[in-house]
Design a protein that fits this description.
The complex is a heterodimer of chains A (about 110) and B (about 110).
Chain A (H helix, E strand, L loop, with lengths): L3 E4 L2 E5 L4 E7 L4 E9 L6 E6 L5 E4 L2 E6 L4 E6 L8 E9 L7 E2 L3 E6 L1
Parallel strand pairs in A: 2-11
Antiparallel strand pairs in A: 1-3, 3-8, 4-5, 4-9, 6-7, 7-8, 9-10, 9-11
Chain B lengths: L4 E3 L2 E4 L5 E6 L6 E7 L5 E8 L2 E4 L8 E4 L6 E5 L8 E8 L8 E2 L3 E5 L1
Chain lengths: ~110, ~110
């Protein structure tokens, strides 16, 4: 019940295309859902996050869609660029501690020029 | 403003030796989290510390692993009598307080056990 399941494991997208990564969770106590971006040799960096009281949040080319009833959330990267090539992790936390995160398994995104 | 600093970046130990991983949080951050990342897997929470206190160690293995965050100096993750299964990337993250969504990760320490 503490798991966050992420798919796909890897994704190849053409430059300018839309990248979509999905996550599902079981624990309805989760109340914070961030996405992190990680480049090789670096630590994860917060990309965008959402709370369950909204269904969508957009920041630039990045959008989180949240479906509370289905217990799913997804990351959409519009106009994908080669510089977006990285590993993306969804995560979840509960009880107000946004530092204690349950991470998904990660998605390796490759954007081809 | 320097980010979260972890050292060493790479650490090689032989089985049975001790590993000490250091983490200096961002300036003004008094909350530190340690995570472990095994190859091809997501990060797994290990421990959450404030200055001089362990708040949540629910993700720490019961034996050989310990963590501290003293009043002065960096946070230390200590692994005694390392085994090959301890080989992983260890990440430290810091925040000004637990409700703050601004969690910053360091670049990690890659531990290799021979």
């Amino acid at each position: 019940q503490q798991q966050v399941k992420q798919s796909p494991q890897s994704l190849i997208v053409q430059k300018g295309g839309i990248s979509i990564i999905n996550c599902a969770y079981e624990n309805t106590a989760f109340d914070y859902f961030p996405w992190y971006q990680q480049f090789p040799g670096k630590g994860p960096a917060l990309l965008i996050a959402i709370r369950p009281d909204v269904s969508e949040k957009k920041e630039g080319r990045f959008t989180i869609s949240f479906n509370k009833s289905a217990k799913q959330f997804s990351l959409h990267i519009m106009d994908s660029q080669p510089g977006d090539s990285a590993t993306y992790f969804c995560a979840a936390s509960k009880g107000g501690n946004t530092g204690k995160l349950i991470f998904g398994q990660g998605t390796t995104l490759q954007v081809k020029p | 403003n320097a980010g979260v600093m972890q050292n060493p970046r790479h650490l090689v130990r032989r089985r049975g030796q001790e590993a000490r991983l250091r983490c200096s949080p961002m300036k003004g951050h008094s909350h530190v989290y340690w995570y472990r990342q095994l190859p091809e897997e997501g990060l797994k929470f290990m421990v959450y510390l404030q200055k001089e206190n362990i708040i949540d160690e629910s993700g720490m293995p019961k034996e050989r692993f310990s963590a501290e965050f003293p009043k002065e100096g960096p946070s230390i993750l200590r692994i005694q009598q390392v085994v090959r299964g301890d080989s992983a990337a260890y990440f430290c993250a810091s925040s000004p307080e637990p409700l703050n969504e601004k969690l910053f990760f360091g670049s990690g320490t890659q531990l290799s056990v021979l």
